[in-house]
Design a protein that fits this description.
By secondary structure, the chain is an alpha+beta fold. It has one domain: Beta-lactamase (3-Layer(aba) Sandwich). The chain contains 11 helices and 12 strands. The protein has helices at 12-25, 59-72, 97-102, 121-130, 146-160, 164-173, 188-193, 205-210, 221-232, 239-245, 299-314; strands spanning 29-35, 38-44, 52-54, 107-109, 132-134, 181-183, 217-220, 255-256, 259-261, 265-272, 275-282, 288-293. The chain has a 7-stranded antiparallel β-sheet with strand order 2-1-12-11-10-9-8, sandwiched between helices. β9 (259-261) and β10 (265-272) form a beta hairpin. The mean pLDDT is 96.
Length: 316
C-alpha cells in the first residue's frame, strides 16, 4: 500500500527547485516522488493527484509481466519461435519470443496495426501480419517497434484463450485494487471514475485497439508505481523470473521487457495522443520518479526533468 507520509516531505528549497524546473519544462499533469515505497512528494499542475493518463509505451513493462507469468505457467518459452503461434509472420521460423521482448525481431509495420473500424483482436492480428515486413539488417539488433509488443499481446491471447484486457485485469487491476486504471476504450462513465484527464485531442479508438499491449491503458501515477513496484519486488513475479524478464537486453539500448536498464535503475517512456509519460525506478522498486503530462509538446524537457530529479535524489 502506498501511503503518503507527512514526515517525508522534501526540504522547501528542493521543492522550489523542482517546481521551477517542472514549470519551465511545461508540465501539465503530475510528478510524484516515491522513496522507500512511500509517496514522498507530488507536484500537480493539471487535474488532481489521482488523475490518470494514457500511459502509451510504458504499458510494455506490464505486457512483459504478463508474458513472464505465462512462461512461468509453461504456456511457452522465451526461445519459442513466432511460427509456433503465427506461422504467416515473415521469418517467423527464426524470430523468438525473446527477440520480440528485446525489439530485435527485424519486423517493421507497413500499414496500420489493425482494422478500421475495429472488429476483434484476431482480425487485427491478421491485418497487422499481412502488413508486416521483415528487414534482415535489423534482425538481432535493437529497432524500436510497437509491433513487437502488439504481436506478444496477440500471442498472450492465443495461448491463454482470453482477451488481453481480461489477463491484464486479472494480474494487475483486481489483485492490486487499482482504482485509477482502465483501458481508454472504456465508456465515458468508466473513464470519469478513474479520473481520466482529457487533453482535448481526439483519440482514434481503432488505432488504440491496434496498439494492444503497447499503448491502450490509462493509469494514475500511484497505480503505475504500485504495479511497477510489485513487478520488481517479487509479489507478482518470482525474483528469478523478474531478473529474466527485466535483464539488460542484448542490444545497444539495454532494452528488454519494456524497460531500459541503467546503472542502478530502470527507465521507461511513453508518448502519444498528446500524453507523455516517464518512469524512473530503482531495480528493487523502492524508489521512483513518475511524471505524466497531458501535453507532450515539451517531451524532451519533461524527460530531462524526470532524469534530473531522479539523479538528484537517488543517483545515476
Amino acid at each position: 500500500m502506498i501511503t503518503p507520509n507527512q514526515h517525508l516531505v522534501l526540504q522547501s528549497e528542493k521543492a522550489q527547485k523542482y517546481k521551477k524546473l517542472l514549470d519551465n519544462a511545461g508540465l501539465k499533469g503530475n510528478l510524484t516522488i516515491y522513496k522507500n515505497k512511500q509517496r514522498r512528494w507530488q507536484y500537480t499542475t493539471a487535474g488532481d493527484a489521482n488523475s490518470s493518463y494514457l500511459i502509451n509505451s510504458v504499458q510494455k513493462e506490464l505486457t512483459a509481466g504478463l508474458i513472464m507469468r505465462a512462461i512461468s505457467e509453461n504456456k511457452f518459452s522465451l526461445d519459442d519461435k513466432v511460427a509456433k503461434f503465427y506461422p504467416n509472420v515473415p521469418n517467423a521460423q527464426n524470430i523468438s519470443v525473446l527477440n520480440l521482448l528485446e525489439m530485435t525481431s527485424g519486423l517493421d509495420p507497413t500499414g496500420p496495426m489493425g482494422d478500421a473500424p475495429y472488429n476483434n483482436d484476431d482480425a487485427n492480428a491478421q491485418k497487422m501480419i499481412q502488413d508486416t515486413h521483415y528487414n534482415e539488417q535489423n534482425f538481432g539488433k535493437g529497432d524500436y517497434q510497437d509491433l513487437d509488443y502488439i504481436l506478444l499481446s496477440h500471442i498472450l491471447e492465443k495461448v491463454n484463450g482470453q482477451s488481453y484486457e481480461t489477463l491484464f485485469n486479472d494480474m494487475y487491476v483486481y489483485p492490486l485494487k487499482l482504482k485509477h486504471t482502465d483501458f481508454v476504450w472504456a465508456d465515458q462513465q468508466k473513464l470519469k471514475e478513474i479520473d481520466f484527464l482529457f487533453n482535448g485531442q481526439n483519440v482514434d479508438m481503432n488505432a488504440i485497439h491496434g496498439l494492444l499491449g503497447a499503448g491502450s491503458v490509462a493509469m494514475s501515477n500511484d497505480d503505475l508505481y504500485k504495479t511497477s513496484l510489485d513487478l520488481l519486488n517479487g509479489k507478482l513475479l518470482s525474483e528469478q523470473n523478474k531478473d529474466i524478464i527485466y535483464a539488460p537486453g542484448n542490444n545497444a539500448l539495454h532494452y528488454r521487457g519494456g524497460l531500459y536498464t541503467k546503472n542502478n535503475h530502470y527507465e521507461s517512456n511513453g508518448n502519444g495522443y498528446g500524453y507523455c509519460n516517464f518512469l524512473r525506478i530503482s531495480k528493487d522498486g523502492k524508489n521512483a520518479v513518475v511524471l505524466q503530462s497531458a501535453d507532450s509538446s515539451h517531451y524532451g524537457d519533461l524527460s530531462n526533468s524526470a532524469n534530473k530529479i531522479y539523479t538528484d535524489l537517488f543517483g545515476k
